[in-house]
Amino acid sequence: MTAEINTRLLVEILTARRDDFLAQWTRTIGDDLQGRLSLAELGHELGELYEAVLKAISIGGLDGRGEHFGEARSLLIELSRNRARQGFTPTETARSVFALKEVLEPSLAGEAASAQAYLQFARLLDDLGLLTTEAYVRTREEIISSQAEQLLELSTPVVKLWDGVVGVPLVGTLDSARTQVVMEKLLQTLVDTDSTHAIIDITGVPTVDTQVAQHLLKTVVAARMMGARCIISGIRPQIAQTIVALGIEFGDIPTNSSLADALRQALKEIALETEDDVKGLL
Amino acid sequence: MKDFGAAGVTAEAIPVANSSDVVSARQTVRNLSQRSGMSLVHQTKLVTAASELGRNMLIYGGGGVVRVAAVTDGGRSGIFVEFRDQGPGIGDIELAMTDGWTSGNGMGLGLSGAKRLVDEFDIETGPSGTTVRIVKWGR
Ligand SMILES: Nc1ncnc2c1ncn2[C@@H]1O[C@H](COP(=O)(O)OP(=O)(O)OP(=O)(O)O)[C@@H](O)[C@H]1O
Ligand SMILES: [Mg+2]
């Protein structure tokens, strides 16, 4: 029964002093954020949230996890996502909720009759505050993984080295995701530049293990299917010794210690091929 | 292989649950072997062996813990690495150690190759997990 009395009391005071509370709430957070968000925008955001929370409480009471809080929760998630994207901290984001406690405290906490209602309301706000942190973290994770993907794209350039020759300087770890990106870019560039030779340079790959080797082989096979020849360059002495000890065989794939040697080899082959073409015509 | 368990107490432990953890474990091995003054060739061999065993632990053992320690024995110093998982174990070690044998779609060179890359190689396996210990001596 007391829960119902508390709920009624809260709804009454939140309704009666709406404008007053809302203004204070907006001001408190506005001070916190020091002008990084306009007061008008903030007021609008918090106004919507205030209405949603008030409505939820009057419909179904103070259980923030209940279905009646659905709208309030989605507003909060939206708010947290925006804050995360705008670069606010998770603390600042959670404060947006917790600050409402401070606003209500002087009017409710003082009297025995309303103190209980205040405590229950505070608990509700704690729950909602945690929700913002969760949503905030999830958004940041999304941002990070999309940045990682962009970085992957950026860090796998495929360049035209010469007429008929494209180069793929690999730097870092060659995992499955990376291999996929490299392969797609290489095949596309071969077509776009009408090239017959590809040089995959692994100077920047610190560890060449069976996984990397398998990925390299897969890339070479794919390029072959497009009629291109691949040369693997940048095999440093310590990598060469390690590959041999591991037992990896690159078969008939030509390898070179330097990119320059590989390019020379590719150009020689191209020259021979054109010669053959000319002879074939005669 | 000599028991480096005591030295292992001071070891760095890296939990491996995904492929970026394998990269971190590899980096720890690289850093420690660099600091111990190991030659570039030996460093590269050790790090590559760690890469193979770390990935096996992740793929077939469902993840586990890698421990890395600088150890000494008599006059020489080296790096000790242990890979411990609680996976299903290896049914037939002899087969698994054969060049080119894989139960999945690898090259089947990880275990046998890793053994060739290091100076000491020790493997214990059973239904409650697999532990591989390796040592690469300095210079
Ligand atoms: N920690 C482990 N737990 C269970 N099974 C393992 C473990 N390590 C290796 N194995 C088994 O031994 C086989 C051989 O391992 P190995 O590393 O030599 O080859 P691979 O992993 O299949 O291929 P790759 O050449 O890419 O390493 C594996 O296919 C797997 O069945
Ligand atoms: Mg393996």
**Major β-sheet of chain B, in short?**
5 strands, antiparallel
Q: What is the gyration radius of chain B calculated from CA atoms?
A: 14 Å
> Can you tell me the number of structural domains of chain A?
2
- List the secondary-structure elements of chain B in sequence, H or E: HEHHEEHHEE
Largest interface: A-B, 19 and 24 residues
The outline of chain B comes out as globular
Instruction: Could you tell me the CATH topology label of the largest domain in chain A.
Output: Globin-like
Q: What is the general shape of chain A?
A: rod-shaped
By helix and strand content of chain B, what is the structural category? alpha+beta
The first-to-last residue Cα distance of chain A is: 104 Å
Oligomeric category = heterodimer
Count of helical stretches of chain B: 5
Any ligands, ions or cofactors bound here, and which? adenosine-5'-triphosphate, magnesium ion
Number of domains of chain B: 1
Strand order of the largest sheet of chain A: 1-2-3-4
Keywords (chain B): Kinase, Serine/threonine-protein kinase, Transferase
Domain Histidine kinase/HSP90-like ATPase (chain B): 41-139
Organism (chain B): Streptomyces griseofuscus
Pfam families (chain B): HATPase_c_2
Description:
The complex is a heterodimer of chains A (282) and B (139). By secondary structure, chain A is α/β, with parallel strands linked by helices. Chain A is 71% helix and 9% strand. Chain A folds into two domains: 149 residues, Globin-like (Orthogonal Bundle); 123 residues, Transcription Regulator spoIIAA (2-Layer Sandwich), CATH 3.30.750. In chain A, strands 1-2-3-4 form a four-stranded mixed β-sheet, sandwiched between helices. The model of chain A has no long low-confidence stretch (mean pLDDT 90). The longest helix of chain B has 20 residues. In chain B, strands 1-2-3-5-4 form a five-stranded antiparallel β-sheet, with helices on one face. The mean pLDDT of chain B is 92. Chains A and B meet through helix 8 and helix 9 of A and helix 2, helix 3 and helix 5 of B. Bound molecules: adenosine-5'-triphosphate and magnesium ion. The site of magnesium ion (MG) has 5 residues of chain B, from helix 3.
